[in-house]
Amino acid sequence: MLLTNFSGHSLEAGLDEAGRGCLAGPVFAAAVILPADFNPRFLNDSKQLSAKRRDALRPEICAQAVAWAVGQASVEEIGSINIAQASYLAMHRAVAALALTPEHLLVDGNRFRAVAGIAHTCIVGGDGLYRHIAAASVLAKTFRDEHMAALAAEFPEYGWEQNAGYPTAQHRKAIRAHGPSPHHRMGFRLL
Question: Cα–Cα distance between 87 and 112 in angstroms, integer?
Fold first, then answer.
């Protein structure tokens, strides 16, 4: 069973990102503040869930969250400031887009660049421990996958509707055959 919060503040937001290790596309992040009684049956780290379960959880999270928001950092920003800083930028954008200002941020991972005026705690594996980080994980992943599927319609040769830009053998084979697209992260090792 996942825990509700870490700090005891009712306005604690969970933060997580998706797409950090991809070869293409933006990095997405989500910030989620949940009510204490929110406990859907299958909520977990998005990597532990099937696409079908993630897609079923997303509208439930969006409907019942006290507040939620998604942010992203572009391929150009990733190339300019590096993937770690771009991940923090996407998280900051998600926090800034929340309808309420959180009192505390609970961040999945071991590092974070502080948001001015809001305390934070980093938790390695937090998306498998805390509901609001798990919810953020699900939103970041589903919104990013949706974005990559839309890009796949324009660039079908890369299979982004299935691999979401991750470095699969099929994706690397497509890069070899067709070269990189404008959505590929040129600072990453594509082949």
Answer: 9
Alpha-carbon span 157 to 178, nearest angstrom: 8
What Rg do the C-alpha atoms of the chain give, in angstroms? Answer: 16
pLDDT in tens, 88-124: 999 999 999 999 999 999 999 999 999 999 999 999 9
User: What are the backbone angles phi and psi of residue 106, rounded to the nearest 5°?
Assistant: -110, 110
pLDDT in tens, 118-145: 999 999 999 999 999 999 999 999 999 9
pLDDT in tens, 41-92: 899 999 999 999 999 999 999 999 999 999 999 999 999 999 999 999 999 9
Query: Among candidates 139, 148, 187, which has minimal Cα distance to 166?
Result: 148
Strands in 104-108's sheet, in edge-to-edge order, are 67-73, 27-33, 12-18, 104-108, 119-123
Query: Roughly how many angstroms between the first and final C-alpha of the chain, as a whole number?
Result: 40
Asked whether 123 and 133 are in contact (CB, 8 A), the reply is yes
* Phi and psi angles of residue 188, each rounded to the nearest 5 degrees, phi first: -95, 160
> Angle at the Cα of 28 (from 77 to 31), degrees rounded to 5?
125
Contact 94, 69 (CB under 8 A): yes
Count CB neighbours of 79 within 10 A.
15
- Coil, strand or helix: which one is 83? helix
